[in-house]
Write a structure and sequence with these properties.
Blueprint: H1 3-7, H2 12-15, E1 25-27, E2 31-33, E3 53-55, E4 58-60, E5 70-76, H3 78-81, H4 92-99, E6 105-110, H5 116-126, E7 132-140, H6 142-147, H7 152-155, H8 164-172, H9 180-183, H10 197-222, E8 225-230, H11 234-237, H12 243-255, H13 258-262, H14 268-284, E9 288-291, H15 292-299, H16 315-329
């Protein structure tokens, strides 16, 4: 039996229907989103594709809030969506609702594999579904940095997105498409070197802050406080994790190439550089900035099993991070 099957057998649910090759929905503006009305022991989604939360004896989602008078929003990509949680009740939104003494529920606005552009669009298109919003937390930052190494002709004006190569190829090969010339050459990477890490950090920070400025405008229109949280990576928290983490990471490296692709991003030097630029930009916009990695590092031990991979939390990790984040917010 593999370590993945031993420690996280439920992760097969995420690598099936919710993987790039799974039953994802192709949507205007967003490109893609989770399958709608999905039902399983691990992940459940509403009619719009948002994941359900379970807390305090209630089950709710963006498109299924019942008679709720007010909500608090946590937005982001796959970490907020809850990759790594064995059940809906273990996502950040669920645990924050359970651990928050205030009456409003935290609603899951996470989109798997979303960049900052898609996170922003997802909220703007679906905020009409919400009752009174009391607070917005944007828990994000990695995907823009991870995608920043792609060539300029794939990033274009608003940043690269996952599976963009498939999209550009399809559009370029569509003979009758009016957009064929616009996409022509989008996947030609031969003459363009990978940007330096410094260039990647500068680009990702600039893109994230550009969209954060729009989030601030949305928050002001709702009359609520916005907080930006730079999501943690396992190596940003600590060099060596628990026994379970080390065994899982080793096996995952054999199956994929995360360290080969993103090894330079995993360093403390990269974290400090990237976090510093984001914090400085957020401060200029008068937005509260939280760097979760050092907070988690200070409050946990290397034996605590927090991550199922280098980005996503275990059930225990979700609970720990939810408490630490609430402590920073309240």
């Amino acid at each position: 039996m593999s370590f993945i099957e031993k420690y996280t057998p439920y992760m097969s649910e995420y690598s099936g229907e919710f993987a790039d090759s799974g039953n994802i929905n192709w949507l205007p503006y967003l490109m893609y989103f989770h399958p709608s009305n999905h039902r399983s022991k691990v992940v459940n989604t509403d009619e719009a594709g948002f994941r359900y939360s379970e807390a305090n004896g209630q089950r709710y989602s963006v498109a299924d809030l019942g008679s709720t008078d007010g909500v608090r929003i946590i937005a982001g990509s796959s970490t907020v969506f809850g990759m790594g949680a064995s059940e809906d009740k273990h996502t950040l939104a669920s645990r924050m609702t359970e651990n928050d003494s205030r009456e409003e529920s935290w609603v899951n606005f996470g989109g798997r594999s979303f960049n900052s552009t898609q996170e922003m669009i997802l909220f703007s298109l679906n905020s009409y579904r919400l009752p009174k919003v009391k607070e917005i937390v944007l828990f994000s930052g990695f995907n823009d940095l991870g995608l920043a190494r792609l060539p300029k002709n794939m990033r274009k004006d608003h940043g690269a997105f996952f599976m963009c190569g498939i999209f550009y190829n399809a559009m370029e090969n569509k003979n009758n498409s009016l957009f064929k010339n616009w996409f022509k050459g989008s996947t030609d990477q031969e003459d363009e070197p990978i940007p330096s890490l410094e260039e990647q950090i500068d680009y990702a920070a600039s893109l994230t802050l550009r969209h954060l400025n729009v989030w601030q405008a949305l928050a002001k229109s709702l009359g609520v406080k916005l907080t930006f949280v730079l999501q943690p990576l396992s190596n940003w928290v600590r060099d060596t994790g628990s026994k379970e983490e080390q065994e899982l990471f080793s096996e995952l490296e054999e199956k994929g190439n995360f360290t080969e692709m993103y090894g330079d991003i995993l360093t403390q030097e990269c974290l400090q550089n990237y976090a510093g630029k984001l914090e400085q930009g957020a401060k200029k916009m008068k937005i509260k900035f939280i760097n979760m990695s050092p907070i988690i590092s200070e409050k946990t031990s290397k034996d605590d099993w927090l991550f199922v991979d280098r980005i996503h939390f275990t059930d225990y990790g979700h609970d720990v991070v939810s408490k630490l984040l609430l402590n920073e917010l309240t």
